[in-house]
Amino acid sequence: MLLYYWAINIGAFIKIGTSYAEKRIGFWLAFLVPLIIYLIMPIVLAIIRNKVIKLPPQGSVVADTFKVGQVLISRGGIVKAWKGGDDFWNSAKPSKIEGEGGLKNKRPGWINWDDDFVDEIKRTFQACKLFCFLPIFYMADGGLSTIATSMAGSMTTNGAPNDLLGNFNPLTIIIVAPLLNYV
Q: Cα 136–124–63 angle (5° rounding)?
């Protein structure tokens, strides 16, 4: 995973080169550099295709997730959904539904999931609480980046592009991420 994240930031680091290309040569070169990289990617993927683990498609879990949600709401209600807790999530587990005799009136094969699938959905929802704050972060971060680029346009830059400062984030990640993981 670290290698993947590191490679993404290597690609993002190319923004620094395109910033200089745009300022000194023109926009055509700033757009040509990423195009060349995109054209190289199919060749790289063809080279590593034997090392990539390919699994056959197993269908979508979206329908089963909606069915679990339907069972959770029908058996627990909106109030229990808001409170959460183990009792709420356990109410959609097939073992509990079968133990309470809830499968007698249903057609066979209605439940395609197992107890572990419900636990995975529970963990997913617990992890997604973090994303509630991202819209606020992106509104503030996007505004700050725009302000910094505008301020740099009015400053003496001695030949450096205006948007150079915002491009140091990938460089920092390339250097610091391995240090944090291995040191």
A: 110
Tell which residue, 10, 2, 8, has the closest CA to residue 171: 10
pLDDT string in tens for the chain (183-residue length):
567 777 777 777 787 788 788 888 888 988 898 898 889 989 988 998 898 888 888 777 888 889 888 888 887 777 666 666 777 888 888 887 777 766 666 666 677 788 899 899 889 888 888 788 877 777 776 666 677 777 777 777 777 777 776 677 777 777 787 787 777
List the one residue out of 120, 169, 178 whose CA is nearest residue 141. Answer: 169
Range list of β-strands (E), 7-152: none
Let me know: does 75 contact 81? Beta carbons within 8 Å: no
Q: What share of the chain is helix, strand, coil (3-state, %, to 5)?
A: 75, 0, 25
| Contact (Cβ atoms closer than 8 angstroms) between residue 96 and residue 90 | yes
